[in-house]
Amino acid sequence: MPAHDDLALLIEAAQAAGEIARRYFRQGPRIWDKPGAGPVTEADIAVNDMLAERLRGARPGYGWLSEETPDTPERLDAARAFVIDPLDGTRAFIEGDHNWAHSLAVVDNGEAVAAVVYLPMADKLYAAAKGHGATLNGARITVATGDTLDGATVLVTRSNLEPWFWRGAEVPRVNRQFRSSLAYRMSLVAEGRFDAMLTLRPTWEWDVAAGALIVTEAGGRVTDRQGAQPRFNAPMPQVDGVIAAGPGLQEEIASRLA
Q1: Going by C-beta distance under 8 Å and a sequence separation of 6 or more, which residues neighbour residue 173?
Q2: What is the pTM of this model?
Q3: Tally of structural domains, the chain
Q4: CA-CA distance, 183 to 180, in Å (whole number)?
Q5: Is residue 92 in a domain?
Q6: What range defines the domain where residue 81 resides?
């Protein structure tokens, strides 16, 4: 299946997800805690159920990995798989903040080949297909060109700037910013609005698979904290942290980490 066909499917599905999520936003949805995983709302589940029906119905041979679906080993036998976060930034959603997103990717033999990150409340749709560039609402986007970490504007939590994470305990002097959704942070880097994003904790694939392709197709580079390119639809669907930036800045960040 051509990546463009999968991308068209993801775009339609993401927009339908936005219609569902908007109905729950700031309407007091039911909220509960998943053990060890933080809060989930009835909006997360409603979106997940729709995406599972629509996407799996359209591509019955694809594997399925979603934050809100119990994982099963059958996906590992599929060359292509959906990697989905039905609602990335659930805490922002609960708090009434607009910075939550739907993150949808198709992965082929470990590599994302089609991806959408959609922010319904801002009507911002980031999209990419392998080899065809990245767009925001249909307009091409590119990463920022800076390659110096000190002074860069970086989407990162304060905890990732503790001295023990950095070589020689030399913490970079950055303009620190934050957004709740990891997928949105990566998309903002792809858009060139921020120089880099960084997270040093083990990170679930569904949070970053779509963003990884969008950044890469925008001319950037995405690696784990060791500088290795992440592979998706793995048996344990986590990556060892994420660095996303232009190629030169990504290389500097990786070299300065302890």
Answers
A1: 150, 151
A2: 0.96
A3: 2
A4: 9
A5: yes
A6: 3-140
What residue type is 191 in one-letter code? E
Say how far apart CA 258 and CA 253 lie, in whole Å.
Answer: 10
Q: In three state form, how does the secondary structure of 148-192 look?
A: CCCCCEEECCHHHHCHHHEHHHCCCCCEEECCCCHHHHHHHHHHC
- Count CB atoms within 10 A of the CB of residue 207: 24
Shared domain check, 24 and 129? yes
Residue whose token pair is 């949070």: 207
CB 139 within 8 Å of CB 223: no
Task: Please work out, in degrees rounded to the nearest 5, the angle formed at the alpha carbon of residue 23 by the alpha carbons of 20 and 26.
Answer: 130
Q: Is the dihedral of CA 121, 11, 156, 143 positive or negative?
A: negative
The H or E element spanning position 204 is: strand 196-204
pLDDT one-digit tens code per residue, 216-228 = 999 999 999 999 9
